[in-house]
UniProtKB/TrEMBL annotation:
Record-linked Pfam families: CRAL_TRIO (PF00650), CRAL_TRIO_N (PF03765), GOLD_PATL1_C (PF25099)
Basic and acidic residues: compositionally biased ranges: 115-128, 151-184
InterPro entries attached to this UniProt entry: CRAL-TRIO_dom, CRAL-TRIO_dom_sf, CRAL/TRIO_N_dom, CRAL/TRIO_N_dom_sf, GOLD_dom, GOLD_dom_sf, PATL, PATL1-6_C_GOLD
Annotated keywords: Cell cycle, Cell division, Cytoplasm, Lipid-binding, Membrane, Transport
Skewed-composition ranges (Low complexity): 7-23
Name the record gives this protein: CRAL-TRIO domain-containing protein
One GO term of the biological process aspect: cell division
GO cellular component, as recorded: cytoplasm; membrane
Subcellular location: Cytoplasm; Membrane
Family annotation (Gene3D superfamilies): CRAL-TRIO lipid binding domain, GOLD domain
Native source species: Genlisea aurea
Family classification: Belongs to the patellin family.
Length: 554
């Protein structure tokens, strides 16, 4: 693995593939990456790459933007479920209601030690036997008084001379002990003791618990029997009610152990810099909130030390992450008609081999992924991995066995040069942060996410123009972004009045390939009606993606 990490950055992944449930994640590689893999994987990856190239040529030929390959959240409406799903939901509700009635979700009382229970059982059994014996027999049976003459005879019997033959012994009178022994043997045996109960006698606390009303448990701010919540557990377990119920009990137990309710009341355990690593920004094309995870930020040694230097700091980071997740889940619309999932963007930029060889980060990442899968079912609609380096395929092989097939089916991968194009399929430009090729900027005074952008394609080796109509005097403001370099950009204003001269607003110039300078913002004050014409000349043999928006201020 150490040798593989020395491969040049030119071998970075350039392919973007949405992995279906029936496929393995190792197929997500580019043609260059495939050269470093065994032959079967290479053939499979080449097929994927050829398919993407053919699709791109088709789009170029038609001169249109491909339709956005987005996704829709599964319906949470009861009427949209098929009969087996409805049956599973009803069965799960019944199991939960029975558990609530018996208060099975409450932590049980700690059982007594084994030695103590055995001692109590032995004492109880001995006590029952002694009670039975004392009930059947008196301690001593009184005898009737004997006449004086008979008593004297008994005394004279022992005084015979030693030389005389001994006469047959007379029958002695039975003593109390003899009579007691005779009675014991003649009395019918007592009935066999009743079999011991499998459990000990109920304690007063248990008896009182039976008199309590059913438990009332909420989760993520919703009642436990909420259809939306239960459908998440059922989908995570392929609509197997008993397995979903077992998972639900495990989640509730974990939440009580982790003290989630107390965690929500705590002040945010903020670590300076983490707001650049994990944050929510905008929504996707279907309205799902988008969570960004920029792992490359941990290249900052100071931030890395604050989060992962020792076990205590890693625990603090995990609690911060769970608190962040819990608060944002409560902002979702957990109703049948609402959006109840998020989209995650995992940015691997500036992290070549970082996760593989940073033990603390790898452990924390795997722990967070496992917690998400085990305790937050079906809250992630899609996970898009961007700026994926070649080594991530190998890393994915390590964690893939620990993920369910349903989880892996939501993965999408994109190499560095396909990141923006891939994100545009799921997120509109006005919602995508500027660092990922979008138009959204913090503290933007001119535009907001409500100002939608227009998306167009610039064909290879061709010119493309957009027109901004100006119906009244005012200030025209526009911003433009072209995904890719080797484009010449210019702008001019053409008045409506005859005989008026065309004004050069922006002299034609070649756009810089740097990411920061590809976002072009311009403001132009106009005192008459007309139109602004913005032209682009693509000098490259590849198509370019163009996004822009404008407004006119009076």
């Amino acid at each position: 693995m150490a040798e593989e990490t020395k491969t040049t950055a030119a071998a970075a992944s350039e392919a973007e593939v949405a992995v279906p449930a029936s496929e393995n994640l190792e197929t997500v590689v580019s043609e260059k990456e495939a050269q470093n893999l065994p032959e079967p994987k290479k053939v499979e990856a080449l097929a994927v790459e050829e398919q993407a190239v053919e699709g791109g040529r088709k789009e170029e030929k038609e001169g249109k933007i491909a339709e956005c390959v987005s996704f829709k959240e599964e319906s949470n409406k009861i009427e949209d479920l098929v009969d087996p799903e409805k049956k599973a939901l009803d069965e799960l509700k019944l199991l939960i209601q029975e558990a609530l009635d018996k208060r099975e979700f409450s932590p049980p009382q700690p059982p007594a030690p084994v030695a103590e229970r055995e001692t109590k059982a032995v004492e109880k059994k001995e006590g029952e036997e002694s009670n039975a014996e004392s009930t059947d027999l008196p301690e001593e049976i009184p005898l009737p008084p004997q006449p004086a003459s008979e008593a004297a005879k008994e005394e004279n019997v022992d005084e015979k001379p030693s030389g005389e033959d001994e006469a047959p012994p007379e029958e002695k009178s039975e003593t109390a002990e003899d009579i007691k022994e005779t009675i014991v043997h003649e009395v019918a045996p007592p009935p066999p003791p009743a079999p011991e109960k499998p459990s000990e006698e109920e304690t007063p606390e248990q008896q009182q618990q039976q008199l309590l009303p059913p438990e009332e448990i909420s989760i993520w701010g919703k009642p436990l029997l909420s259809d939306v919540i239960l459908l998440k557990f059922l989908r995570a377990r392929d609509f197997k009610a008993k397995e979903a119920f077992a998972m639900l009990k495990s989640v509730i137990s974990w939440r009580k152990h982790f003290r989630i309710d107390d965690l929500l009341q705590e002040e945010e355990a903020t670590i300076d810099g983490l707001d650049k690593v994990v944050y929510i920004h905008g929504v996707d094309r279907e309205g799902h909130p988008v969570s960004y995870n920029a792992l490359g930020e941990f290249q900052d040694k100071d931030l890395y030390s604050k989060a992962f230097a020792d076990a205590e700091k890693r625990e603090k980071f995990l609690r911060w992450y769970i608190q962040f997740l819990e608060k944002n889940i409560r902002k979702l619309d957990l109703t049948p008609d609402g959006i109840s999932t998020i989209v995650q963007i995992i940015d691997l930029n500036n992290s070549p081999g970082f996760i593989l060889f940073k033990k603390e980060l790898r452990q924390s990442t795997n722990q967070a992924l496992q917690l998400l899968q085990d305790n937050y079912p079906e809250f992630v609609a899609k996970q898009v991995f961007v700026n994926v380096p070649w080594w991530y395929v190998a890393y994915n092989r390590l964690i893939s066995p620990f993920l369910t097939q349903r989880t892996k089916s939501k993965f999408v991968f994109a190499g560095p040069t396909r990141t923006t194009e891939t994100l545009f399929k799921y997120i509109a430009p006005e919602q995508l942060p500027v660092q990922y090729g979008g138009l959204s900027k913090e503290g933007d005074a001119e535009f907001s996410s409500a100002d939608s952008a227009v998306e167009e394609i610039i064909k290879p080796a061709s010119k493309h123009a957009i027109e901004i109509p100006v119906s009244e005097p005012g200030t025209v403001v526009w911003e433009v972004r072209v995904i890719g370099s080797d484009v010449i950009y210019g702008a001019e204003f053409v008045p409506d009045a005859e005989g008026s001269y065309t004004w050069i607003v922006q002299k034609a110039r070649k756009m810089s390939p740097s990411e920061e300078q590809q976002l072009i913002f311009y403001s132009f004050k106009i005192g008459e009606t007309g139109k602004v014409v913005v032209t682009f000349e693509n000098q490259n043999s590849k198509k370019k993606k163009l996004v822009y928006r404008f407004k006119i201020k009076n």
